[in-house]
Amino acid sequence: MRLSSLLLKTSAVGLLLFAVGARSALADFNPIELLSSNTSNIEGDGSSSSPRISSSADGSLIVFSSDATNLVPNDDNDLSDIFLVDRSGESNTIARLSVGLGSSEADGDSRNPVLSADGKFVAFESDATNLVAGDDNNVTDIFVYSIDDETIERVSLSFGGGDADGASTAPSISNDGQYVVFQSVATDIVTGDDNEVSDVFRYDRDADTADRASVGFDDDTPIEGDGASRNSAISGDGSLVVFESDATNLVSNDNNDASDVFLRSFADDSITLASISTAEDTGNAPSGSPFISNDGSIVAFQSSASDLVTSDQNDAQDVFVYSIATETVSRISVGRSNQESNGPSFSPTLNSDGQYVLFESAATNLVVFDQNNTVDLFAYDRDAETMTRVSVDSLSREVNAASGEASVNSTGQFIAFSSGSNDYVTGDDNDANDIFLIDTQCLLQPTGVTPQDQDGDSTDDCTDECPLDSAKILAGDCGCGVAETDSDSDSTPDCIDECPSDADKSAAGTCGCGVADEDSNSNGIVDCVEPTSTFRPRKPVAVYRKKKRLLRVIIPQEYPGYRYLIQIRDGNRLVAKKRTRRVRAKFFNLSGTLRVRYQILDVLGGGNSLFSPNTRIKAN
Question: Does residue 14 belong to any structural domain of this protein?
């Protein structure tokens, strides 16, 4: 759905929240879209995952994988497919990309899509055998979909151009789609692959050639790794590849017996340890899940090592960044005043220049008021040195389930992510993981992003408490969408005035609107309900319980300060009476056709009484 339609969908909830004062700050408006829905705005009937957003300023293209069968017509393969959402038009469009030859449905699951920065190519992995001709290896392969041409090519090929002899997964793609990196256990993608473990490869789509990235160098001679390599990512120009590896021979003195993060440069055929300790050695615990900024300046990764920075004593996995220019490591997952996090942090990603580091964390002390006890998404601004939780609803409230798999556009304004929470948008009741897009124009206030003014009142949404109400910029007492009208000019707006036409009363009180709640004789009883000599009390209520021979009598109107005399007659014979200050009384062992009434005693002094009408009841 388009952003505007979602905002309309959620506005009613927002108005109510504003009305009861739930808005916590002026800069808390974060438009959120549900992306895993069809063109009729019906949410997917299955789980969705792995969103990736285009690098463009408007974040108009998003790809993801989904098990849902109702995102596009005729999805009958009961498999995970790859979908592309285009937000550039008046309304969202969604298309299935993992389609086989002759528009047939894929005969295997497709997963882990990535989108080139120019928005023209989507790389993904698939078990399907019918996406291209001649796919006979019955293993997972890497494919590239051309958005302009609507064609699919396979890039995980043997060096002879045929089927690879092992599975290939987890692609990453360069800006223009020329280069695709992936991990593979195949032994025939390049010659001389004899290590029998997973390697990382870079495929050049222009030259139709593949190079192995996960190699060390003896002078200029490549040396294949002696351990598995995986989880690769590529820079925008395709010259740099980061990956994690168990290999011990990619750099010298790798003696930690743990996975490390490496940076491979194809420009100068070099490999560098990125998860480097303060002693300029390998870390003392595993590091992995690396990501490289589009401009090739920053590498983000997760690590359990305690010696990558000084004073790392939290015994938890943290998120770090490695500056390629300075060859230094900094820890990102820290709380206020550099307080160490109290939970694990993982799965980092970056915007184009590495200003924003997004990651998942179970820590509760990275920001204030983190009380949902689940994994949240955070964004660290390396320029401003500020931490922000971005897995919040449109009013910046925390949500009720984990969020993750973040992907951010070049500016940091748009973040696509997955979550099982039903708090992000109204009507989310599919009990499945969905794909969402949050606009952080107010939450992060990215440099160069001008906040929108949806209601056209010349006050931007980040400072407008009512961003969808052109008549109000403050929620006031009535909330957004409701005017602060005061019909009786009593300084209480009609929306909270029980007597909007009575200037003397804003609450109905005992007597109701238009009648003053006066106590002229100061006896504690408001005049409008005080008995008078001409007042006629209402009939009592009588209920008889035959089994217990119990008669309950209820005086329907209480008169504070007065006593009552309840009388019960059988014919003309008085069979029971009771003096009381209560409006309820019980009588036992009565029978016959009874008449029940009560007196209000000593009305206006002088011993006068007021009698109620009789209530008749059969007690038998």
Answer: no
The C-alpha atoms of residue 500 and residue 58 are separated, in whole angstroms, by 47
- Residue 497 structural domain: 489-522
Model's pTM, two decimal places? Answer: 0.80
Q: What is the pLDDT of residue 357?
A: 99
**Within-domain flag for 359:** no
List helix spans (H) across 265-359: none
Instruction: Specify the higher pLDDT residue, 22 or 535.
Output: 535
Q: Which helix (H) or strand (E) holds 584?
A: strand 584-588
Same domain, residue pair 560 and 537? yes
Residue 81 backbone dihedrals phi, psi, to 5 degrees: -125, 170
Tally of domains within the chain: 2
- Which of 110, 125, 141, 34 has its CA nearest to residue 418? 34
Which of 245, 237, 233, 346 is closest to 299 using CA atoms? Answer: 233
Is 204 a residue whose pLDDT tops 90? yes
Distance CA 141, CA 128 (A): 8
- The residues, any chain, with a CB within 8 Å of residue 14's CB and separated by 6 or more, are 394, 395, 468, 480
Helix (H) or strand (E) holding 8: helix 3-19
* Whether residue 537 sits in one domain with residue 569: yes
Does residue 408 fall inside a structural domain?
no
